[in-house]
């Protein structure tokens, strides 16, 4: 297994955060995140496994940085696959900041 450079994780998280500022979570793909981060899709999958894993990492890093109110994620109403991510974010984000 190839090693992933040390800054790749931070670059990928920053790219995902930028994308989520302009588009709903439903439109987020790991391929699009990889392209934005100038990383390989394999690196994104290896580090996070799924969109939900990526969201969990964003929440965790935002909690550690005490910047969760700055994390903006929009979900499309009625998308059953994203309800678990929406519930996860609701646990940590103040109402009205999601």
Short description:
The protein has 98 residues and is mainly α. Helices cover 56% and strands 0% of the residues.
Describe this structure in words.
Helix content is 56%, strand content 0%. By secondary structure, the protein is mostly helical. The mean pLDDT is 76. It is globular, with a radius of gyration of 13 Å. The longest helix has 15 residues, at 8-22.
Keywords:
single chain; 98 residues; mainly alpha; 5 helices; 56% helix; 0% strand; globular
Present the secondary structure layout.
Blueprint: H1 8-22, H2 30-37, H3 41-48, H4 51-64, H5 83-92
Helix pairs in contact: 1-2, 2-3, 4-5
- Look at the structure and give the mean pLDDT: 76
H/E order of the elements?
HHHHH
**C-alpha Rg (nearest Å):** 13 Å
What is the count of helical runs? Answer: 5
Question: How would you classify the helix and strand content by structural class?
Answer: mainly alpha
What general form does the structure show?
globular
How many beta-strand segments?
0
């Amino acid at each position: 297994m190839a090693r992933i450079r040390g800054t790749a994780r931070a670059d990928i998280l920053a790219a995902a955060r930028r994308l989520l500022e302009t588009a709903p979570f439903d439109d987020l793909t790991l391929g699009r995140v990889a392209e934005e981060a100038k990383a390989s899709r394999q690196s994104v999958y290896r580090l996070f496994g799924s969109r939900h894993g990526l969201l969990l990492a964003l929440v965790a890093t935002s909690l550690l940085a005490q910047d969760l109110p700055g994390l903006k994620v929009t979900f499309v109403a009625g998308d059953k696959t994203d309800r678990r991510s929406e519930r996860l974010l609701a646990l940590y984000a103040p109402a009205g900041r999601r």
